[in-house]
């Protein structure tokens, strides 16, 4: 319906468009008529002249009129085909157009609104054919070809009709698919309705029955218009099918002129008429036919007709025997094949046929006749008889048809006149029976009788034989194999043989033991028989009677003989009784042993621990099996110690040398008794768990325990923090209030016992209070106090420390009532600073507090360049800073031209003061509306009671910035270089920085902007193994500074290897086994001694070689001292990222100023696969709390506390650290890693167009435009993912310091022009746990920090010799480091400190007695101070080890260091001096 509606709408739209076109054409025709009338009026005037001319001229011939040369004719076309309406006009003069049902289609060849219509032809030839493409039903109409009037030609018209025919859309027999089967019962009404849909014109329907047209009398046809101009034809047949219609096809065919005769449109159904089958009939046996038994019979039952085909079933005597049948078309067949048997005689076989249309089954029946002989004959009668007996015999045949005859043979003679009778057998046929008698004759052992059964018609004979034995009695039996009175030991084998001869049949022998029949082995001969028994003698055979009996059918009473056995046997069991049953200490008990029966009597004895015990009351009495039962007892006084004692009773048969025994363990009941514990005091640590376990001895063992403290019962429930579990007292988390006396009560059914245990709870030290900032006058004594609580707590648990301060010169300590006092004598300016109170009793992590000692001193003004210059624009506010230290607080006075400024009295000058810390103050002079006269020098005066300081501060006009003071190379990888610079004066405005760099053999620069508020930059995308030059400049809004000279250089590394085998350094802690010295053999001691001697010789030889190399290198260093100083770049592999901080990237440090450079040493770096180092980790601590500043004599902050780098931090010190087991990463490790380890992102490589990467805008900027060689390679790949692993290679020390790197990597610095070497230490026996970090610094202000994971250490310019100490005595290993890449560190104070550095290189650290038997620790991060006491950005990562301050004093290490001018200090996990 939707398609019809859409089609109708489309048709309406087309009609509307055609109507509009028609109106326009009519209007156009009206205008033409008016114009024609005007022309006629004007031409009328000319008519007269024309008439005159025509009249005077001769008469012309008649003019030709327009006419149809080919007239349109009616056309019939198939839907979808093309229709061509022909119209040809001769002498065409007027306009030609076509109309459809009176609607004008227009004069154009392309007809608007009718895309399928077009006019084909040629006006010159007068052809105007109308072509209609893809004809549809809508094109079915009356068409007219119109030729309009023109030039005195009248209009002409010609009509033609276009008929569009459409074949039927479908044909079907309603309700059935094509070629489907229609099932219908016989004589049931059936209607077939054929539908031919949507044809034009209406189709005709022809019916076929089979292949013959079917013209029934009753047929109903109907035609109706289904849609516009389409018709549907229906035809109905009414049938009453019969059996003849089964399998008949009825076909409905559509006839239509649009259909091709070769492809008719048909719908066919096939009838399946249900009707009953025909009667069955039997083939294969004819009535009266005779069959023989064993003959194969095939009975076939068939039935024809019927739909569905008949079901055939065979029955025998009314019982179903076969129902499998087969069909072929409308024929059913069931074949029953069998072998004829006697039971088939007179059997009735019936076949039944039926289907769904049958009311009752149809039947056919046949009866068989089968002849058969008897299968056997049976003779019945006695099988035994005595001489002279008359024996009755009966012979019976099996069924036979016809009946069989019987013949007898007795003793070889035929019996005549034997009577017989015949009876009908229920199995079919007849049975015959005959009876005779026979007399047993003497002198014969048997009588043989034969019976014959004969079927005379079939001539078949069957025979049966019957034997009658003649009976004679046997001779009496005889027993052999044993003589009465003979002794048989129990367990031995005894055979008895019984023999009987004669008799018919042979005798049957039977053995009996005490009237109980037993089995025997029977052997028979011709005239005798024997029976043998085998006896495994046991106690039951003693005095047992064995009897043999012989009998056969001729004996009424059996014949027998017997014998009696004598058996010796040992006792089988021993039973022990205790009287009374419950034993308690103090009573007397009788222990009785009863032995089972024995022959001869057994001997009893008592034993304890292999020692015989004298028994009493030895009695005996008769026992089983003819033996004797014995009893023996002894008495004992019961004590508690007898519980569990074992007593054994033995019973022995001496004749057989056999015995049995039984043991009893005394069960003495007594009350619980505690096993003395190792100590009556249990010690635990607060916050940890503790278990106190007690054991008791008691009987019975179920002991009830009860724990109490101060009368309160400890609960048994494990959900409590303190709970009891039997004899164990558990503290899941100790608290200091848990200390006290705990009582344990143990009880059982016999009593109870009690034991007291004292629990001591140790807890870490905490500092309760310290003295406030102490202020004293110079020369006075100062006292600082620190109150501590903890357990245990003594004076040795509280220490005072201060880095870089000799505590032995002027200080002393006292301790009283948990408070430690630090006394400083003759306090001076050098004593100003923080003294740290460290409390550590080795129970928990140490705690510390800083106490500031202030000794009054005159003010000291800071002289940093950035603090002595200021800049401001005209009309702006100028700010001049002045920072000073002093005590008491200094007063600031500002002057200009030696005159005090009117501060805060006019709007011109103001002062802002602020306190930076307890000693540092800052005064800022604010000059409002700066005028040209305000520029110049100002004096800042800081004054207190002890003196004053004066410094000049200049105010300048804002300008372009000064160049940075210096540029340093911080880190180098295979494709990145990290640089840092010291900023110069910023010109009064915020300064930014730009770095330029180039390859050393190129002149073209590349540029990259620095990060905001940062003085460090990582440059990426560099070529591998290439030397680059770097420079930096600054700029602000007013301009830019010049670039520094290209003195900073760095050479990128080779590409890191994709993987590296795990070395012995990172594979985990070494596995050691500890064996007591006393347990080793002499051979092992000799081997160990020989090994030690070899190691010492190697150490000596290597030490000599290293000493010579050091002398040569130091000589070169001295020779190069007068040459221009050179910058050093220490290259180590680190991540590459613009976002890296100094924490994760600064693995090497440089001096503060760069003048020249050197490339000494170019060996390839050794890369270590850090992912394989299980025992090492990197700890990057960010945002940690900085300790208070420690003030030095010069008024600056100490170098150990820089204010802009990551603070040093180590892992907590575990309590009772023996340093013998490897410790995996703890929770502290994980905390530090999660807090500090970063994931770097690779730096983007700059494009090869001279662009530089702007860090503010995160994009590339083209500055400046330059041309670069086409061979530049910016495709360096980011480093492999291995660089994301925690770092373990450490940084280095500067200015003559020495640093021992993590996992054995070491760097050493020798003088201002010395070299720095890095090595990988191999074969390290052990590394202490991360608990202590050592800080070392030179006296002359060149600090050095050293790891302590490998001690002792012999440090030189190029090699490192290490030896470890086990138990503090035996050196076990020496390792020489391979040559590694190195550089030269430049020191600005090189000339001043060269002598000190020369002493450092010659200093020997061998022999420092630091224990190293601890397991491999994890890396720590240490603050690496720069030279000159200033603030630095350097970082040191170390592998921490174990240090025990109780056994290692500072003097043991510092003493050696003092010889070389190197004071050494030790810090614990929190950086405190220990």
Termini, distance in Å? 102 Å
Count of DSSP-assigned helices? 7
Helix content bin: under 10%
Which value, in Å, is the CA radius of gyration? Answer: 67 Å
For the secondary structure, the number of strands is: 103
> What percentage of amino acids are in beta strands?
35-45%
Q: How would a textbook summarize the main sheet?
A: 8 strands, mixed
- From the spread of the alpha carbons, the general shape counts as flat
Low-pLDDT parts are 1-8, 48-62, 1059-1082, 1117-1474
Q: Give the integer mean of the pLDDT values.
A: 75
Written account of the structure:
With 1474 residues, the chain is mainly beta. The chain is 9% helix and 41% strand. The protein contains seven helices and 103 strands. Strands 58, 61, 62, 65, 66, 68, 70 and 71 form an eight-stranded mixed sheet that branches. A five-stranded mixed sheet has the order 2-10-9-5-6. A five-stranded mixed sheet has the order 12-19-18-14-15, with no helix packed on it. A hairpin with a 4-residue loop joins strand 79 and strand 80. It is flat, with a radius of gyration of 67 Å.
What's the structural blueprint in terms of helices and strands?
Blueprint: H1 2-56, E1 67-70, E2 75-78, E3 83-85, E4 88-90, E5 96-100, E6 103-104, E7 117-120, E8 129-132, E9 141-147, E10 156-165, E11 170-173, E12 180-185, E13 190-199, E14 204-209, E15 212-214, E16 219-227, E17 230-239, E18 249-255, E19 265-274, E20 281-283, E21 290-292, E22 296-304, E23 311-316, E24 319-322, E25 326-328, E26 331-339, E27 348-354, E28 362-367, E29 369-371, E30 377-380, E31 384-385, E32 390-397, E33 405-410, E34 413-415, E35 420-424, E36 430-439, E37 446-455, E38 460-470, E39 478-480, E40 487-489, E41 493-501, E42 508-513, E43 516-518, E44 521-524, E45 528-536, E46 545-551, E47 559-564, E48 566-568, E49 574-579, E50 588-598, E51 603-608, E52 611-613, E53 616-622, E54 628-637, E55 646-653, E56 658-665, E57 670-674, E58 681-685, E59 690-693, E60 696-699, E61 704-709, E62 712-713, E63 722-725, E64 728-731, E65 740-748, E66 751-770, E67 774-776, E68 782-791, E69 798-801, H2 807-810, E70 811-816, E71 819-824, E72 833-839, E73 847-855, E74 857-861, E75 869-872, E76 878-887, E77 891-896, E78 899-900, ...
Parallel strand pairs: 2-10, 12-19, 21-29, 31-38, 40-48, 58-66, 67-73, 75-82
Antiparallel strand pairs: 1-4, 3-8, 5-6, 5-9, 7-8, 9-10, 11-13, 13-17, 14-15, 14-18, 16-17, 18-19, 20-22, 22-26, 23-24, 23-27, 25-26, 27-28, 30-32, 32-36, 33-34, 33-37, 35-36, 37-38, 39-41, 41-45, 42-43, 42-46, 44-45, 46-47, 49-50, 50-54, 51-52, 51-55, 53-54, 55-56, 57-60, 59-64, 61-62, 61-65, ...
């Amino acid at each position: 319906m939707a398609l019809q509606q859409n089609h109708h709408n489309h048709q309406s739209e087309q009609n509307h468009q055609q109507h509009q076109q028609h109106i326009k054409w009519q209007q156009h025709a009206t205008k033409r008529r008016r114009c024609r009338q005007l022309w006629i009026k004007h031409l009328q005037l000319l008519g007269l002249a024309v008439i005159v001319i025509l009249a005077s001229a001769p008469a012309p011939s008649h003019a030709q009129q327009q006419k149809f040369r080919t007239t349109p004719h009616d056309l019939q076309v198939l839907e979808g085909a093309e229709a061509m309406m022909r119209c040809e006009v001769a002498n065409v003069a007027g306009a030609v157009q076509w109309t459809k049902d009176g609607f004008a289609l227009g004069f154009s060849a392309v007809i608007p609104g009718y895309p399928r219509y077009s006019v084909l032809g040629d006006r010159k030839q007068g052809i105007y054919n109308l072509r209609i493409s893809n004809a549809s039903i809508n094109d079915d109409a009356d068409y007219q070809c119109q030729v309009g009037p023109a030039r005195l030609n009248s209009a002409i018209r010609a009509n033609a009709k276009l008929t569009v025919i459409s074949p039927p859309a479908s044909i079907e027999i309603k309700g059935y698919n094509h070629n489907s089967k229609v099932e219908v019962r016989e004589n049931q009404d059936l209607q077939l309705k054929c539908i031919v849909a949507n044809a034009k014109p209406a189709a005709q329907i022809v019916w076929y029955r089979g292949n013959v047209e079917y013209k029934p009398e009753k047929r109903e046809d109907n035609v109706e218009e289904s849609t516009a101009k389409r018709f549907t034809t229906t035809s109905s047949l009414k049938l009453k099918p019969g059996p003849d219609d089964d399998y008949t096809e009825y076909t409905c065919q559509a006839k239509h002129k649009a259909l091709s005769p070769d492809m008719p449109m048909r719908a066919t159904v096939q009838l399946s008429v249900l009707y009953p089958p025909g009667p069955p009939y039997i083939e294969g046996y004819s009535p009266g036919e005779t069959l023989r038994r064993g003959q194969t019979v095939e009975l076939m039952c068939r039935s024809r007709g019927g739909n569905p085909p008949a079901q055939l079933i065979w029955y025998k005597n009314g019982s179903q025997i076969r129902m499998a049948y087969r069909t072929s078309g409308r024929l059913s067949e069931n074949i029953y094949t069998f072998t004829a048997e006697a039971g088939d005689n007179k059997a009735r076989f019936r076949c039944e046929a039926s289907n769904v249309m049958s009311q009752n089954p149809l039947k056919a029946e046949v009866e068989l006749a089968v002849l058969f002989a008897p299968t056997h004959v049976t003779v019945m009668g006695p099988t035994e008889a005595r001489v002279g007996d008359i024996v009755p015999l009966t012979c019976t045949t099996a069924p036979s048809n016809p009946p069989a005859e019987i013949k007898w043979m007795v003793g070889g003679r035929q019996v005549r006149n034997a009577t017989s009778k015949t009876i009908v057998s229920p199995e079919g046929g007849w049975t015959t029976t005959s009876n005779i008698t026979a007399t047993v004759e003497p002198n014969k052992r048997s009588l043989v009788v034969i019976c014959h059964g004969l079927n005379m018609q079939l001539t078949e004979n069957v025979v049966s034989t019957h034997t009658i034995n003649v009976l004679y009695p046997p001779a009496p039996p005889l027993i052999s194999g044993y003589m009465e009175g003979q002794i048989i030991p129990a367990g031995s084998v005894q055979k008895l043989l019984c023999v009987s001869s004669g008799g018919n049949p042979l005798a049957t022998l039977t053995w009996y033991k005490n009237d109980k029949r037993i089995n025997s082995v029977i052997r028979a001969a011709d005239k005798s028989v024997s029976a043998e028994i085998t006896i495994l003698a046991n106690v039951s055979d003693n005095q047992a009677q064995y009897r043999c009996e012989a009998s056969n059918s001729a004996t009424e009473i059996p014949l027998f003989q017997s014998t009696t056995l004598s058996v010796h046997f040992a006792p089988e069991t021993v039973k022990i009784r205790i009287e009374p049953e419950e034993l308690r200490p103090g009573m007397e008990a009788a222990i009785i042993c009863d032995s089972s029966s024995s022959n001869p009597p057994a001997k009893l004895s008592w034993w304890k621990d292999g020692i015989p015990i004298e028994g009493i009351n030895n009695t005996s009495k008769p026992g089983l099996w003819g033996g004797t039962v014995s009893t023996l007892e002894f008495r004992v006084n019961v004590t508690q110690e007898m519980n569990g004692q074992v007593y054994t009773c033995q019973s022995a048969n001496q004749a057989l040398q056999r015995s049995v025994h039984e043991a009893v363990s005394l069960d003495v009941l007594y009350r619980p008794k505690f096993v003395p514990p190792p100590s009556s005091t249990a010690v635990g640590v607060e916050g940890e768990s503790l278990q106190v376990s007690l054991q008791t001895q008691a009987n019975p063992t179920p002991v009830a325990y009860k724990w109490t403290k101060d009368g309160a019962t400890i609960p048994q429930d494990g959900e409590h923090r303190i709970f009891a579990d039997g004899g164990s007292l558990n503290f899941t988390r100790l608290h200091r209030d848990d200390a006290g006396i705990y009582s344990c009560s143990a009880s059982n059914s016999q009593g109870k016992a009690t034991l007291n245990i004292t629990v001591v709870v140790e807890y870490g030290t905490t500092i309760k209070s310290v003295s406030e900032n102490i202020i004293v006058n110079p020369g006075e004594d100062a006292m600082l106090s620190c109150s501590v609580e903890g357990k245990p707590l003594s004076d040795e648990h509280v220490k005072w420390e201060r880095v870089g301060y000799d505590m032995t010169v002027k200080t002393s300590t006292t301790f009283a009532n948990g408070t430690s006092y630090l006394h400083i004598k003759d306090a001076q300016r050098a004593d100003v600073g923080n003294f740290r109170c460290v409390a550590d009793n080795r129970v928990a992590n140490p705690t510390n507090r800083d106490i500031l000692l202030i000794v009054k001193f005159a003010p000291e003004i800071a002289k940093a360049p950035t603090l002595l210059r200021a800049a401001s624009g005209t009309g702006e506010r100028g700010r001049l800073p002045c920072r000073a230290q002093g005590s008491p607080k200094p007063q600031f006075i500002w002057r200009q031209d030696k005159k005090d400024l009117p501060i805060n009295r006019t709007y011109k000058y103001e002062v802002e003061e602020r306190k930076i810390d307890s000693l540092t103050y800052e005064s800022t002079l604010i000059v409002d509306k700066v005028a040209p006269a305000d520029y110049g020098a100002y004096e800042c005066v800081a004054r207190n009671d002890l003196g004053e300081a004066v410094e000049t501060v200049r105010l300048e006009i804002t300008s372009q910035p000064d160049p940075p003071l210096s540029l340093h190379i911080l880190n180098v990888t295979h494709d990145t270089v990290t640089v840092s610079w010291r900023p110069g004066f910023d010109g009064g405005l915020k300064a930014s920085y730009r770095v330029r760099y180039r390859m050393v053999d190129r002149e073209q620069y590349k540029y990259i902007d620095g990060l905001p508020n940062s003085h460090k930059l990582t440059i990426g995308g560099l070529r591998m193994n290439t030397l680059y030059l770097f420079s930096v400049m600054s700029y602000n809004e007013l301009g830019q500074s010049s670039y520094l000279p290209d003195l900073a250089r760095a050479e990128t590394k080779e590409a890191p290897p994709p993987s590296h085998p795990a070395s012995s350094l990172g594979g985990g802690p070494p596995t050691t086994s500890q064996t007591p010295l006393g347990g080793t053999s002499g051979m092992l001691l000799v081997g160990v001694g020989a090994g030690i001697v070899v190691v010492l010789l190697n150490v000596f030889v290597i030490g000599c070689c290293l000493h010579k190399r050091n002398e040569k290198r130091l000589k070169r260093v001295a020779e190069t001292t007068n040459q221009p100083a050179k910058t050093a770049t220490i290259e180590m592999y680190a991540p590459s990222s613009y976002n890296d901080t100094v924490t994760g990237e600064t693995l090497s440090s440089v001096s503060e100023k760069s003048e020249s450079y050197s490339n000494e040493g170019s060996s390839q770096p050794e890369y270590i696969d850090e992912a394989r180092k299980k025992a090492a980790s990197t700890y990057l601590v960010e945002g940690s709390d900085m300790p208070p500043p420690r003030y030095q004599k010069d008024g600056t902050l100490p170098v150990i506390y820089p204010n802009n780098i990551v603070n040093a931090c180590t892992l907590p010190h575990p309590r009772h650290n023996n340093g013998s087991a490897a410790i995996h990463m703890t929770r502290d490790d994980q905390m530090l890693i999660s807090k500090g380890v970063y994931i770097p992102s690779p730096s983007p490589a700059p494009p090869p167009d001279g662009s530089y990467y702007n860090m503010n805008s995160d994009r590339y900027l083209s500055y400046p435009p330059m041309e670069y060689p086409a061979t530049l390679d910016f495709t360096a790949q980011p480093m492999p993912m291995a660089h994301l692993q925690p770092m373990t290679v450490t940084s280095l020390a500067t200015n003559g310091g020495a640093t021992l790197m993590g996992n054995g990597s070491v760097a050493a610095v020798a003088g201002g022009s010395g070299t720095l070497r890095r090595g990988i230490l191999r074969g390290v026996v052990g590394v202490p746990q991360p608990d202590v970090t050592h800080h070392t610094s030179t006296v002359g202000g060149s600090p050095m920090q050293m790891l302590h994971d490998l001690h002792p250490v012999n440090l030189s310019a190029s090699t490192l010799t290490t030896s470890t100490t086990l138990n503090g005595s035996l050196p076990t290993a020496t390792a020489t480091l391979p040559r590694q890449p190195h550089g030269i560190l430049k020191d600005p104070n090189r000339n001043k400190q060269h002598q000190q550095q020369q002493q450092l290189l010659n200093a020997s650290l061998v022999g420092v007695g630091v224990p190293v038997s601890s397991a491999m620790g994890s890396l720590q991060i240490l603050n690496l101070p720069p030279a000159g006491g200033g603030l630095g950005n350097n970082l040191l990562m170390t592998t921490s080890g174990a240090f025990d301050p109780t056994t290692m004093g500072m003097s043991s290490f510092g003493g050696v260091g003092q010889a070389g001018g190197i004071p050494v200090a030790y810090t614990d996990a929190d950086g405190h001096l220990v």
